[in-house]
Write a structure and sequence with these properties.
alpha+beta, OB fold (Dihydrolipoamide Acetyltransferase, E2P), five-stranded antiparallel β-sheet
Length: 155
């Protein structure tokens, strides 16, 4: 019986890892989705006025909550008490495991980003937030590439 529970927990972990691995959206200025490739973009030039570090939180898949609940429920229910006590422990373990799994997924999905404020050559100001995969400095000349509501700042 214990081997079945361990096998079930391992299966849940494997499925959760697979589902979490499918969530690969990117806010990088160097990553284009298939729909964005080979599309014309508007190019504007300007100067960086300011930079602010931000955290970019990607969408949650629920895999962390699911995996944490399953693991917590199985672990607590199979090791604590018997009968109704085991059921209660399993429920409590599932709740606490779900909370821990959700927090872990949040941390994994958080990326370092930059909010870059640019004064365009025509005098207009723009602020673009993207992953911090390129270094920008105030006073630096940059390009803004825009298409379909998505704007990237590049050198």
């Amino acid at each position: 019986m214990n081997h079945q529970l361990r096998g079930g927990a391992l299966a849940v972990i494997a499925i959760a890892a697979l589902v979490a691995g499918c969530a690969t959206e990117s806010n990088s200025n160097s990553v284009y989705s298939t729909g964005q490739a080979q599309r014309e973009q508007t190019v504007r030039y300007g100067v960086v006025e300011g930079i602010r570090e931000v955290a970019i939180q990607r969408s949650q898949t629920g895999a962390g909550t699911l995996a944490g609940s399953a693991i917590g429920g199985i672990a607590a229910g199979s090791t604590i008490g018997s009968g109704n006590g085991a059921v209660a422990a399993g429920i409590l373990g599932a709740i606490l495991g779900g909370i821990a799994g959700s927090a872990a997924e949040n941390k994994v999905n958080e990326r370092r980003g930059l909010e870059i404020t640019v004064r365009l050559d025509n005098g207009e100001m723009r602020a673009i937030t993207q992953e911090a995969d390129e270094v920008f400095r105030p006073g630096e000349r940059v390009r803004l590439l825009s298409s379909g509501g998505v704007t990237r700042v590049t050198h």
